[in-house]
Sequence to fold (732 residues):
Amino acid sequence: MLSIKNLHASVDGTEILKGLNLEVNAGEVHAIMGPNGSGKSTLASVLAGKEDYEVLGEITLNGKDISDLAPEERAAEGVFLAFQYPVEIPGVSNVNFLKTAVNDIRAFKGLPPMLAKDFLKLLKEKRALVELDKKLTNRSVNEGFSGGEKKRNEIFQMAMLKPKLAILDETDSGLDIDALRIVANGVNKLKSADNATIVITHYQRLLDYIIPDFVHVLYDGKIIKSGTKELALELEEKGYDWLIKPEMAQ
Amino acid sequence: MGKYTEEQLEKELETQEYKYGFVTDIETEKAPIGLSEDIIRLISAKKNEPNWLLEYRLKAYKAWLTMEEPEWAHVNYPKVDFQDIYYYAAPKPKKQLDSLDEVDSELLEMYEKLGISIDEQKKLSNVAVDIVMDSVSVKTTFQDTLAKLGIIFGSFSDAVQNHPELVKKYMGTIVPYTDNYYAALNAAVFTDGSFCYIPKGVRCPMELSTYFRINEAQTGQFERTLVVADQGSYVSYLEGCTAPMRDENQLHAAVVELVALDDAEIKYSTVQNWYPGDKEGKGGIYNFVTKRGLCEKNAKISWTQVETGSSVTWKYPSCILKGDNSVGEFYSVAVTNNLQQADTGTKMLHLGKNTKSTIISKGVSAGNSQNSYRGLVKINKNAINARNFSQCDSLLMGNKCGAHTFPYIEVDNKSAKVEHEATTSKIGEDQIFYCNQRGIDTESAIKLIVNGYAKDVLNQLPMEFAVEAQKLLAISLEGSVG
Ligand SMILES: Nc1ncnc2c1ncn2[C@@H]1O[C@H](COP(=O)(O)OP(=O)(O)OP(=O)(O)O)[C@@H](O)[C@H]1O
Ligand SMILES: [Mg+2]
Fold:
């Protein structure tokens, strides 16, 4: 589904991603872990097409090279990013925002706008999935939302847009224990044989709920270790030092 | 008898010829260029005005001569040469076109984006319209409905002829010609405008907008509008048009006077989309407008404006809250892009007891433009329990534009409560990227964000107009990000 080859990304001459490779197949969940500042959010932004970076390397989605596509085109191709820090858009209701998003993506695919009644049905269904308060869907996008509410809203949007590739950037941080379970549940329910999920997290706990097929460690712009879910447990126990400075760990 | 020299003869002929030439000019529709007492007499004569109106014009002219053109810190433009303007030209019918193919393609593109129907596009660009949408019959239907209720609505000139007592009673009472430079000029040389009178207790059953739009093509350079809502009446009046307006006249100096008698309510909405000039700001229209309303007891005046056009806008719709319990509101969105400059705001003068005013001003600046809010809230010493709430927000797009806020507050009564809030924000690249990531392209993203920001003002507009105004905001900002 997603294939990243030798990906480099820099900002103002500072290289952040330094030759990153990753293969994600349909139906899989990959977890990416790594110390602060290692480049996890940068990877997410680059995949989503944020224009601040100078990018080299290859990114293909379902065999299609997406590296030259604008962010909205990538979104239409099925890339979704649940932001680490969702922004607020005052005065624009969540409903209006999502209606615009859903219909713009449909327009991109040559489909007519969704009928209002179908949209409403979808909205209710997905709202229930992440147990989002109705009041929040009527409020302005993320405006005045608590940290946890913002994260839950990201997953709600993801449910509405049914992406092929979902990237969740620290969606677990700021969630209380119940919310974590609800959000993880939502993600699991949205999982299918033809979509894939990349979960960026610092905590093994999330991975108890969303079981990853693979775990990768990103350090200094590169994936320095890949493994299965056991790797996450090991990281929880030992931290990153043994990977970064193997000689010290011995 | 003195010598009758050749020189004298020459001189006499010259002046006579001038005089005759003048007369001939009257017949050929256009008065000579420049401004003088004679020109004013000519305008008045041409319009067959009663003597009191001519006197009024002349007094205004004399006052104007003694006044100085205002200078504002945040508006810069080459000064207008007032002797280089034609003050009177008989309304010559616009050239009728046979099909939309003959219309400026840029204009059509804009109509398209605004979602204006083909029939209406034709009307707006003066293309002969099919019988289906005969504008004359539409107009007559409206006129019939209004006439049955005793509502007078028509051109200012017609009102001067048919209802001189009403015009005489109210004209210049709200905006006297001594008020300011442009108001004086307008009073001296105005050629037409609109007049509206709603009788006691009558609720005007329609937005006075659709009708106006049909008439839109004929707005003048020095327009004058007078709206009188008699006791307990209500009217919602809509001025302007979202469609782009071009005009050969660079200077526009209109005067709008509103009178809301006891228990009356006037809602006055404006969409101003005069040609803003090209990217270098050349050829745009200077829009210097004086708008003011008077509220008697329990009356309410609500100004709503969406300002996107003109190269220079100078405009402060105001309310004199004279009657006890009267209410004044001002809702404004002013968008400036490229080299546009806007200096706009409001004045709320609280004279009566328990008077209330609300000011919501939303500036959006992009490109190299300058956008200023200038507002005065004045609470007089007898205005017990007066209340004001002001919110002045500025939204910046890019780093080259400017937003300025000049709130003046004068309170002479201790029981007054005046609240002022102001914010300045930027459309963040983060916000745009967030929208992009959800599949919304940058142009729609800006539309969403700006409309969200201006929501409190757009909500005040009549429904069908709000939709167009939303599109207009987006179009005005096209190409300003990214
Ligand atoms: N626009 C930018 N300009 C300059 N430096 C940047 C920019 N974006 C990211 N960086 C730097 O790149 C590095 C990687 O940042 P990134 O946000 O990807 O880290 P992260 O792995 O997501 O960290 P965290 O776990 O704290 O979220 C950091 O050192 C950061 O300061
Ligand atoms: Mg991060």
